[in-house]
Design brief:
The structure is a single chain. By secondary structure, this protein is mainly alpha-helical. About 75% of the residues lie in helices and about 0% in strands. The longest helix has about 35 residues.
Length: about 180
């Protein structure tokens, strides 16, 4: 048993210098890494390198992002911002019937009926069977007292969307 203990002790002693060598090697490697590492990695939070990381990337708006901005403005009933955003979307993508339709809606809510009719016409030129644009166009005609035009739009809308047709029919009935 004593012989076995001495053998283990001897094995442990042989491992000790190897372990110390490994520790020295690891410590040396860490020291070299910190000595050679770029100073930007250790930058203070107020240094320019840190500020560049915090700044959002600047990108130009897309037609979709402008459209979404317009929808948010419409929901807030901020009609001037909605008009601006929908016009921005259209400037970036002219063949955007949803943006033309929403532009018409925002203009109509500002009482700018002639401009709203032009926007609805463009939406319907791009998508002739666009139920929402037809409904809004009919409502604009009612506001202008053009009930016969509104009824013609209603006839176009009926086979496309019964719910929207019913809403327009009610608006026409109230406007009569």
């Amino acid at each position: 048993m004593i012989a076995t203990g001495r053998a283990r002790y001897a094995d442990g002693m042989r491992g000790l210098p190897t372990t110390r060598l490994r520790l020295v090697a690891v410590a040396s490697f860490v020291a070299v890494v910190f000595a050679v590492a770029p100073r930007a990695a250790l930058a203070e939070p107020s240094s320019p390198a840190a500020e560049q990381v915090r700044q959002p990337a600047t990108t130009s708006p897309s037609a979709d992002s402008e459209f979404n901005r317009g929808v948010r403005a419409r929901l807030a009933r901020d009609w001037p911002t909605a008009v601006d955003a929908f016009r921005g979307a259209i400037a970036l993508r002219t063949a955007f019937p949803e943006a033309w339709n929403e532009l018409g809606f925002a203009l109509r809510n500002q009482g700018r009926y002639t401009e709203s009719l032009q926007a609805y016409d463009e939406a319907l030129r791009l998508r002739p069977n666009f139920p929402e644009a037809l409904e809004y166009l009919g409502e604009a005609y009612v506001k202008l007292g053009r009930l016969e035009d509104a009824r013609r739009v209603l006839e176009r809308l009926r086979p496309l969307d019964a719910g929207r047709a019913q809403e327009l029919a009610e608006v026409i009935q109230k406007g009569s």
